[in-house]
């Protein structure tokens, strides 16, 4: 388990990652205001990524080392707001980006695979711009023979 936070004091693009005991793992300046730091189940394999913002150059999904793992294409999509939610019911998250006039949804190119990873998230009705996002691991374990 890890804890990712963003800072709105001083430089507003700082992102920090801590281990489950609160020990700092790394920090970085993303140079973007309003990083949302949302956990994302992109591949469905139990590896969580962190959604920062929808900017095609400085945004996207970063891994637990702070390295960009998935970039948004430079295709003219809105960059005002973003969120990650499972919209298709396959337990992988889609990336939703929008502004005042448009809404775009990004999803994976490949079909969903059978997966044993089923993360538990805050319910959508609790979504807010001022919230903490959480993924609790939810693996389906095989039955133990008696």
Keywords, separated by commas or semicolons:
globular, four-stranded antiparallel beta sheet, mainly beta, 0% helix, three-stranded antiparallel beta sheet
Q: Any overview of this molecule?
A:
This protein starts with a strand and ends in a 10-residue tail after the last strand. It has 146 residues and is mainly beta. The strands form four sheets. The chain has a four-stranded antiparallel sheet with strand order 4-5-6-7, with no helix packed on it. It has one domain (2-109). It has strands at residues 2-6, 14-19, 24-29, 38-40, 49-51, 61-62, 68-70, 81-85, 94-98, 103-106, 120-121, 135-136.
Short description:
This protein is mainly β and 146 residues long. Helix content is 0%, strand content 32%. It has one domain (2-109).
The mean pLDDT is 84
Q: Please give the domain count.
A: 1
The H/E string reads EEEEEEEEEEEE
| Proportion of residues in extended strands | 25-35%
Poorly predicted regions are none
Distance between the termini: 31 Å
The helix content, as a percent range, equals: under 10%
Rg from Cα: 16 Å
Which structural category do the helix and sheet elements fall into?
Answer: mainly beta
User: Which overall shape is indicated by the principal axes computed on the Cα atoms?
Assistant: globular
Overall number of strands: 12
Largest sheet: 4 strands, antiparallel
**Spatial sequence of strands, sheet with the most strands:** 4-5-6-7
Annotation field: number of helices = 0
């Amino acid at each position: 388990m890890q804890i990712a936070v963003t800072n709105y004091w001083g430089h507003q693009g700082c992102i920090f990652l801590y281990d489950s005991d609160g020990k700092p793992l790394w920090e970085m300046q993303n140079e973007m205001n309003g990083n949302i730091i949302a956990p994302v189940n992109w591949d469905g394999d139990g590896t969580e990524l962190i959604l920062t913002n929808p900017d095609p150059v400085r945004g996207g999904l970063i891994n637990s080392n702070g390295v960009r793992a998935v970039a948004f294409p430079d295709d003219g999509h809105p960059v005002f707001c973003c969120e990650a939610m499972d919209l298709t019911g396959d337990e992988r998250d889609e990336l939703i980006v929008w502004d005042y006039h448009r809404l775009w949804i990004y999803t994976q190119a490949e079909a969903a695979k059978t997966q044993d990873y089923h993360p538990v998230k805050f319910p959508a009705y609790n979504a807010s711009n001022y919230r903490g996002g959480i993924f609790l691991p939810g693996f389906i374990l095989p039955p133990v023979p008696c």
